[in-house]
What we know:
By secondary structure, the chain is mainly α. It has 4 helices and 2 strands.
Amino acid sequence: MRYNEVDAHKIIKQLKQIYGEDFDVRKRRAEKCVKVVIPWDEVRAREDIKMSVIPKLYEMLNRTKNEKRKERIIRALTELYPNYKV
Length: 86
């Protein structure tokens, strides 16, 4: 998330330089912020992105108390990391 839309464009530009112009990355509005969103298909397809997302998912899982959110995070972890055990 970025408060400045110019910063979001810089991030998108950097991602496209690294992964190529066909890399699917999107920008979404979130109140006063701008979110840079990498679709799930791109995360699953690229090992380096996947290895960055897995620790973040673990962190989110440990922080959340909402059971439905925990189930979604566990589902995502098992999809990215099949050896994950609940």
